[in-house]
Amino acid sequence: MFERAKPLWAAAAVVLAMPLLSLPAAAAASELRVISWNICGEAGGQRGDAGYCPYRNEPDKKVEQIAGLVSRHQANVVLLQEVCGIASDSHLELLKAALGPDWSFARADGARPDGRVDCRGSLSGNLGLGIAVKSRITGTTVTQTLPSDTTGKSKQTLPTLCVRTANWAGTRICTTHVLADPADPRRPQQIRNIKTAVSAGGLDVVLGGDFNLFPGSTDLRPLSGAYEECDSSGAKPNEATHHAWSNGKHVYRKRDHIFATKAGTGRRFTACDADQSLMDRTANEPDSGPPNGYSDHAPLIGYLPGA
């Protein structure tokens, strides 16, 4: 865990503990410092709408926060979900400019249920997953791990994106996004498909993403049983990474995870934390005022030695 402030309490709801992160030293050559964040990059629109997400039409503000996280943690891996790419003013292209030439990028489209991949609102580019690594990418794999909808009603795709790199040649670095609907019968098979995709070839695995599944979930066991999860132990395990406003109440859940290949009987992760200061925790009513975060998700940050 990183150093953080004590939790605050409010009458209407628990105000989650805000991280007070001390600046780390530079990463060792083999060390992986991983940020995984669903930035809700093109989610819907106005205050009070069910799909509201802060700063939807201001990608530069989200990118500024991602770059700030990289700087504070001296991170060398960034895994992003619900991110726009390709277009010159998209999140990923802006992030390329912010991080500089030492970084390499990979991306994969993820279609909405209507089959469209274009980012909505005033945004441009395509929606999907993104990986940035402070290394040279030597291989990229995109696997469509969401089973087809047998009813024919949905054209949604949710891929798993993996890269191999020059600096960590023995590790496959991956990100994914799992179906949000708990009633969708495809979720268990999607998790099994993700496990197959990331474990191919017997390499070490680092996998982060928005899994839309909570700690202890039976559906998550193919991954949680096979790999170490960075926030599964410690002084504050399983911190909330998602805030929702439902029926006039705040709802906090852990939906985001970073997994890694286990290392014998010891812990592989040396630190892990959810930076809840970047998660919007305000009520979502038409008159709620400005947000106090940049996504409905908090970024999850994990440190681990390389393979």
TrEMBL record:
Region of interest (Disordered), residue spans: 280-300
Domain Endonuclease/exonuclease/phosphatase span(s) in chain numbering: 35-297
Pfam family, one: Exo_endo_phos
Keyword Magnesium: no
Keywords: Endonuclease, Hydrolase, Nuclease, Signal
GO molecular function list: endonuclease activity
Range of residues in the leader sequence: 1-27
Tagged with keyword Hydrolase: yes
Protein name: Endonuclease/exonuclease/phosphatase family protein
Taxonomic source organism: Nonomuraea cypriaca
